[in-house]
Each structure stands twice: as C-alpha cells, then as structure tokens.
Amino acid sequence: MKTEWIICPVCGNKTRTMIQENTEMRNFPLYCPKCKKETIINVQDMKITLAVSK
Hints:
Blueprint: E1 3-7, E2 14-20, E3 25-31, E4 38-44, E5 47-50
Antiparallel strand pairs: 1-2, 3-4, 4-5
C-alpha cells in the first residue's frame, strides 16, 4: 500500500501526518511543527486540498 507524508500548504515542509491510498479526511486540522500554523484540509485519493470556509 502506498503511503506518503502530508506537506504543509503554508511552508512546504513535511508534517508529522501520513496518508495512505484509501485515506479520506474532511475538515482535518493539519498542524505544521516547522511554521507552527494550522490549516484545515481535505484528503481524498491521495490529493490534498484546502477546505473552503463557509
């Protein structure tokens, strides 16, 4: 099974969170230990997108 680290959308560094091929997340609070920012993301089919605020 393919796995990869999630990359921070703010600074581009590797976070401490891994995803697999079958991972699905909605409105996941991703924290980056390097830039100390938290962003809300969605993950589906190994594609990471920023969650849109309503």
